[in-house]
Specification:
Helix 14 runs antiparallel to helix 15 and helix 14 runs parallel beside helix 16. The strands form six sheets. A five-stranded mixed beta sheet has the order 1-22-21-11-19. It has a five-stranded parallel beta sheet with strand order 6-3-2-10-20. It is of the alpha+beta class. The two termini are about 15 Å apart.
């Protein structure tokens, strides 16, 4: 592979990082180094196969005696529930939506990656592994990523067997398309509805187990606390969102598959209900939060149109396959109808700056360059605030080359959605797009078995940190969710459950009573403050702070300012919050209050994490660390580690544990897509 040397995975290729800068001095406490206790060794291609064999088995009669709670019913949670239920475990599945089918995985559009090499264009498991590590700017664990690439080939077979209607070529074979950050076609898709179709497959598999009696569903239930007994996760406290009843649910293991926390920015592509509460409650009970500042800005979203908005709409990255991104070369042309701007006066800036990858550079690079164009005064669309937030995504060349019918067949539902939202016909006028918060690479720290720092608590999908480093490549979220749910977790959690049957605990156990009491006290506090501001107003203000100072561009000065502002916002929240209604019924004002309280605490930690990491990598861009050409500049000698943060108590400082990132199969290099 060009620019890379293959290694056998047995010899370290870099030294452990030694941080010398300390921008966040005084904001945190240095903790003990962190080591993944179950990290595999040996040739990288053999590690997962060897580990699956080494992990202990649970015989079928014992599985019936073991209870597993799964929080979340997206691809990771739904697939895990279906698989563990099929294996014979007793599974309790929780979601806050009225149906598992409404999990946010349904919103994914463009596709799912797999190293099938159907196009015979040079793809392989190793190339998918390499692209993912490079795309994540060398801040992910290589063992986890290789496993993900290896398992990817099984996912497609599983989904086809479930009846997922992937797009097919004329001869009947599954079709592929390209996504950002790669030069091969490995993305399987179902028009612009891939997430929906994959989720329906997982949902049907789970419903089969509901009918079989191995999975019990709890819809409209929100996890508000983790039950930890003698340092081990043993259940959750959940609130029935329809009746307000606070319920206790006990188990032998708990799996969090509750998605990401992008809504900390208020405006994001996430569903309005997406939140951090499940993972943050676990964090406060001892689960480490890893790399929280690694958030992804997606380059292909419908621009903000005004202060009235509470959500942004994603336009699939697949559009970058055939659409060309440009802005006017001259600022005075930004007011013109784009069809009246001559070809010679258009700046196809991604094709100009990155000729090898063009419009298919990774998301972090495409987003940052769009911001640069708008900052130069060459943005397009209406003025929002003091400048235009938009660039053109133009399909005129593709329509001329392939014909409108072919473009409509590939992207029709996406074009229809764009027209419904904007009132503009993208077959006739270029789309306008701008970056927006999308996915988060940070999440709860997990070991190779997907177990958190709390024994018995496992974390899958976007809720964990493990596979994407500092930037996720497009079409890899669905891959990780299904890989974790169908193939990884079932083969790792059994090693933990092999110690069962476990001693049962009851609802009157001191640890259970304490967890329930803390939830009830928190709810009472929200209702009793009786201030003047809604939770939504605090959320919007937090989002402004996060986007301005911890968004696409971060600086030491800005992050310090953000931390002070968030701390003041937190004080005000707990003294002037107004929650209407009561606790014993449906109360969305109360739901929002709990979620925003957790977002505020998370936002502070994100800023501290970003302040400490004085380097630019992937979606984390520090202005103090960039090349002469304005590209992200890593400092591997200082920051080649996972930042795993331990909760420091109500009034204490967070504790930073560092897990060194040592590569044995890929050499770390500065990324280049030129």
């Amino acid at each position: 592979m060009a620019g890379s040397t293959l290694h056998d995975g047995s010899t370290p290729l870099n030294d452990a990082a030694r941080q010398t800068s300390d921008d966040a001095h005084g904001y945190y406490i240095a903790g003990e180094p962190l080591v993944d206790p179950v990290a595999p060794t040996g040739p990288i291609a053999d590690r997962w196969t060897t580990r699956r064999f080494e992990n202990r088995l649970v015989n079928p009669s014992n599985r019936r005696k073991l209870d597993v709670i799964i929080v979340g019913t997206g691809l990771a949670g739904g697939a895990a529930a279906a698989t563990l239920g099929e294996a014979g475990y007793n599974v309790k599945s929780f979601c806050y939506q009225d149906s598992p089918r409404r999990a946010h995985s349904i919103a994914a559009q463009g596709g799912i990656n797999a190293a099938k090499n159907y196009k015979e264009d040079g793809d392989s498991v190793f190339r998918l592994f390499y692209d993912t590590v490079k795309g994540g700017d060398y801040r992910s664990r290589e063992s986890n990523v290789y496993r993900l690439a290896e398992v990817s080939t099984n996912i497609i077979d599983q989904c086809v067997a479930q009846g997922v209607p992937f797009a097919r070529e004329y001869g009947g074979l599954l079709d592929n398309r390209s996504f950002g950050g790669v030069q091969v076609s490995r993305t399987f898709y179902a028009r612009g509805q891939t997430g929906q179709q994959l989720l329906l497959g997982a949902y049907q598999a789970m419903e089969r187990q509901v009918a079989a009696g191995t999975v019990t569903q709890y819809t409209r239930h929100e996890m508000l606390e983790l039950i930890v007994k003698d340092g081990v996760a043993r259940g959750i406290i959940a609130r029935n969102l329809m009746t307000g009843e606070v319920e206790t649910h006990l188990a032998d293991a708990v799996v969090l598959a509750s998605g990401g926390y992008g809504n900390v920015f208020f405006l994001s592509t996430n569903a309005m209900g997406c939140n951090v509460t499940a993972t943050w409650r676990a964090h406060r009970k001892g689960a480490y939060m890893a790399n929280p500042s690694f958030t992804q800005i997606h380059p292909t979203c419908i621009p903000v149109s005004g202060e009235h908005q509470s959500k942004l709409t994603l336009m699939s990255e697949s559009l970058r396959n055939d659409g060309r991104i440009w802005v006017p070369k001259k600022a005075e042309d930004c007011d013109k109808d784009p069809r009246d701007i001559a070809e010679a006066d258009r700046d196809y800036y991604l094709e100009r700056i990155y000729p090898s990858f063009g419009n298919l550079v990774p998301r972090d690079i495409a987003s940052r360059q769009a911001k640069n164009m708008c900052d130069e005064g060459r943005g397009v669309g209406p003025m929002v605030g003091d400048f235009r937030r938009g660039v053109y995504l133009d399909f005129s060349d593709a329509i001329e080359r392939m014909g409108e019918d072919t473009v409509r067949e590939k992207y029709g539902n996406l074009f229809d959605m764009y027209e419904r939202i904007t009132g503009e016909n993208p077959y006739q006028v270029p789309m306008r797009i701008y970056p927006a918060v999308h996915y988060v690479m940070g999440g709860l720290w997990v070991d190779y078995h997907l177990q958190s720092s709390i024994p018995g608590l496992f974390v899958t999908g976007e809720a964990n940190f493990s596979d994407h480093g500092a930037n996720r490549l497009g079409a890899s979220a669905l891959m990780q969710g299904l890989a974790d749910g169908y193939f990884v977790l079932p083969n790792t959690i059994r090693d933990y459950l092999a110690d069962g049957p476990f001693t049962k605990i009851t609802e009157d156990d001191e640890a259970v009573v304490e967890a329930r009491r803390s939830v009830e006290k928190r709810i009472d506090t929200f209702l009793s403050i009786n201030g003047s501001r809604s939770a939504d107003s605090y959320h919007r203000e937090l989002g402004h702070i996060m986007w301005e100072f911890c968004g696409m561009e971060r600086s030491e000065e800005g992050l310090r300012k953000a931390i002070d502002m968030i701390r003041e916002l937190k004080k005000d929240f707990w003294t002037d919050l107004k929650v209407l209604g009561t606790a014993d019924s449906l109360n969305q004002s109360l739901e929002k209050a709990g979620r925003v309280a957790d977002f505020i605490e998370l936002g502070e930690l994100m800023c501290i994490d970003a302040l400490n990491r004085r380097e630019s990598c992937g979606g984390h861009f520090r202005v103090e660390s960039q090349t002469d050409e304005g590209e992200a500049l890593r400092h591997d000698e200082e920051f080649a580690y996972v930042a795993a943060w331990e909760f420091g108590g109500e009034d204490g400082s967070p504790v930073l544990h560092k897990e060194d990132l040592i590569y044995t199969a890929i050499e770390m290099k500065q990324r280049s897509y030129k």
